[in-house]
Every structure is written in C-alpha cells, then in structure tokens.
Design a protein that fits this description.
Elements: H1 9-22, H2 30-49, H3 57-68, H4 76-79, H5 82-89, H6 97-107, H7 111-114
Helix pairs in contact: 1-2
Length: 122
C-alpha cells in the first residue's frame, strides 16, 4: 500500500483492511514498519473524526454504580441524604468539593471524571 494521509472514509477503510493483513508482521521489517505507520495514521484520523467526549460526573457515577451493582441508597454515605443523591443523579444539583472527594476516595472514581463541568436540568 502506498502510504498517504487519510482524508476520507475510503482511505480510512482501506487502511483498516491493510492493518488487518499486516497484523502479525514482525517488528523492524518493512511490513512491521508499514503496520506502525498505518496505525498512527488511523489513530490520527479517528481522533479527528470520531471524538469521544468525556463523561459528565453524573455519567461517571452511574457507570460506577452499574459496575458495582450499587443503588442510589448506596451513595448516601458519599453524597449525603437520599434527596441529595436523587438531585445529583437527576442533574438538579452540582457536586460539592466534599462530595467529589468522597466519591473519589470511596468509590475510586477518578477525580478527572468528577471535576468536569456539566449543565443542570431544571
């Protein structure tokens, strides 16, 4: 394959097919070098065209709840009373610094996920 920038979906698709063909190529061979360059090009194309937004803090909390099989009641020790948990999960109240620390320490939710800005739903 002639290496060139990936400018459209066809270029991207062709590169993916070639990567599949080269997948088991030995490192430091022509095929291995081609595989390395193609994967770099594909990553750049995907980062430009298929961006994945970071989850909101509420989405991060809900994801951890799903992972751990937690109910909203299980969040009371980290967020406060039941009504506060409901407000947080329904985007009606923002997390306080204390809540963020509690969730990070207690549920091991990364701080980066919890400090993201997000909109409330009124």
């Amino acid at each position: 394959m002639k290496l060139k920038p990936l400018k459209n979906k066809q270029d991207y698709s062709t590169a993916l097919q070639r990567i599949e063909e080269l997948w088991n190529a030995e490192i430091n061979t022509l095929a291995g070098d081609e595989l390395d360059v193609l994967t770099t090009l594909v990553c750049a194309y995907e980062n430009e065209n298929y961006k994945i937004d970071a989850p909101t803090p509420v989405e991060a909390i809900k994801f951890r709840m799903e992972q751990e099989g937690l109910s909203p009641l299980d969040l009371v020790p980290y967020l406060g009373q039941r009504s506060r948990v409901t407000e947080i999960l329904n985007y009606q109240r923002k997390l306080s610094l204390k809540m963020i620390r509690n969730l990070s320490d207690g549920l091991k939710i990364p701080l980066d996920s919890l400090i993201q800005e997000y909109q409330l739903h009124h």
